[in-house]
Amino acid sequence: MKKTLGILGGMGPLATADLFHKITVLTKAASDQEHIHVLIDSDPSIPDRTDALLHGGQDPLPKMTASLRNLERAGAECIVMPCNTAHGFLQALQARTSLPILNMPALTAARCRELYGDRQACILATSGTLETGIYHRALQEQGVPVLTPAKYEEEILMHLIYDVVKASKPLQPEKETWQHLLDSLRAVGAEYFLLACTELPILAEGLAVPGPFVDPTAELARAAILFCGYEIREQVPV
Questions:
Q1: Which structural domain range is residue 153 located in?
Q2: Catalytic annotation on 228?
Q3: Pick the catalytic residue: 78, 83, 112, 122?
Q4: pLDDT at 157 over 60
């Protein structure tokens, strides 16, 4: 039986659009009518998750819950959140609904094990995601070796995420910065990169610097397609 998908979005808006795009292109469908019924509540006023986790900023849970209620009332049967840092609040949010909320870090960690086995993953993420350890725990459960950026590299990531992608700034001026960051991490043992912030797949695609990369947004899209009773398209249209 086909299910209706709810996207709890706005964290940020471009990441929400990226997930919806990936769901659409990855769904095996020959017509409009063969696609998933998707409900999107994109509320960009949800307080910043990293600020809440690290600096005692405004709690995002009330507004996340309000979006969740909107999706429930509209008929969603499954919830996805295109924000990795928001998964630091997943347990509390799941306790507020009977609807399943797909776990992006767990799905991605399983994919890392499938694709790369014992090779060392490097987590590229916001300070909030790194601090919560949600990806460390998910990868460790899969037996995947983990490398994390040094503090100064973490600051570069925060700049790229907040000052560039979230700020809708041009990506190309940051290509050298991105290349240097990846090269530095390879030099200390990174064998592939986990784009564990939903703004980073947008950056990586826009700058076209070789990885290899694992994209949690794409993994969430694939899991949502299957959960809703649809098939994944193997050959993605250009």
A1: 105-216
A2: no
A3: 83
A4: yes
